[in-house]
Amino acid sequence: MTPIADLRLQLLRRGAKRKSAVHVTIGAPQPDGNDWCCPIRLKGLVDSKERRIFGVDSWQAIILALRLTEAMLKNEIRNGGTLFYLGAETSIAKLFATRVRG
Fold first, then answer.
1. pTM of the full predicted structure?
2. Containing H/E element for 43?
3. Is 50 helix (H, G, I), strand (E, B) or coil?
4. For residues 73 and 79, what is the distance between their CA atoms, to the nearest angstrom?
5. Residue from 58, 16, 65, 17 nearest 40 by CA
C-alpha cells in the first residue's frame, strides 16, 4: 500500500482505564479491472488487516474508503468510546468536517 493519508488517534473504550492507539492509513486508489480500489488499514479497531474499497473510479473509491473509516469510528463512539486527536478529545464531526471557512 502506498499511503496517501495517515491518521493517529487514541481511543478510550467504555470501562477501560487506558487509551489504546488507533492508526488509520488510506492508500492511493488504483485501477482494478474496470473498477478502482482504495486500500485502507484501521489498526486498533476491529483488526489490522488491509481492506480494499471499490468504486467505479478513483474518486468514488477514496470517498467510500473515508466513509467506511467514519462509520467504524462512529461505531466506537456509539459503544461508549471517546476519541482523542493530538492529545485532545475530539469528535467525528471535527475529524470529518465538511465545511470550509472562506
1. 0.87
2. strand 35-43
3. coil
4. 10
5. 65
Quick: pLDDT tens for 28-66: 999 999 999 999 999 998 777 899 999 999 999 999 999
CB atoms under 10 Å from CB of 37, counted, come to: 20
Q: Which amino acid is at 21?
A: A
The three cell numbers locating residue 14: 467504555
CA angle centred on 51, ends 70 and 15, rounded to 5°: 50
CA atoms of 42 and 11, how far apart (whole Å): 12
CA distances (Å), origin 46, targets 17, 39, 98:
19, 16, 26
Residue indicated by cell numbers 488507533: 22
Q: Is 53 exposed, middle or buried (0-12, 13-18, 19+ CB in 10 A)?
A: buried
Alpha helices in 1-102 (DSSP H): 58-78, 92-95
Nearest to 68, CA basis, from 97, 5, 26, 99: 26
